[in-house]
Amino acid sequence: MTGTTSLLCGLLACAGFAGGVETAHADGMSVSSSAFKDGGLLPAQYAGANECGGKNTSPPLEWKNLPQATHSVVIKMTDPDGAKGGGVVHWIAYNVPASVTSLAAGAGNKSGDNITVGKNISGAEAYRGACPPVGDTPHHYIITVTATDIAPGSLPPRLDAAGLTVALAGHTLNGSTIVAQYGR
């Protein structure tokens, strides 16, 4: 990797886990969505409900080429533009077995089989759709999938972003990101 590529990958990983665990972008590891292209617009149905224009439905995701030692994956969606640049955590999901390689639309809305949904910025254990202020430049929603060596079901329910960062220390193997934009 070149120095610029390493720096960019490091910045993207840090954006995915703001304030904590660094993940490296695995050669070959990838995350994608059938709902939007990387850097593209987030369809409205995945935005917040009511005045935000959406249905508060988590987007479909697929990840590939996890490191061989992966036991579970973590998913996190942040808006670094939110809170006037302070960042907003919209979604954290964990305890997803490595054998699961995708989530259908809405599958990450709440905890269930093979997934634990942690606390978003409002303290709710749920997916919180995009909802930037009216008139703002479209916000960037960074979705990071991180491979871990933690056994599925080992992490407790109700973790927030800070608690998840502590729990992941020393356990991340690699990660990959996809970015969507949304404005209103």
From TrEMBL:
Keywords: Signal
Signal peptide coordinates: 1-26
Pfam families given in the database record: PBP (PF01161)
InterPro entries: PEBP (IPR008914), PEBP-like_sf (IPR036610), YbhB_YbcL/LppC-like (IPR005247)
Claim: Nucleus is one of the keywords in the record: no
Keyword Coiled coil in record: no
Coiled-coil regions listed: none
Protein name (Swiss-Prot/TrEMBL): Phosphatidylethanolamine-binding protein
Lineage of the species this protein comes from: Bacteria, Pseudomonadati, Pseudomonadota, Betaproteobacteria, Burkholderiales
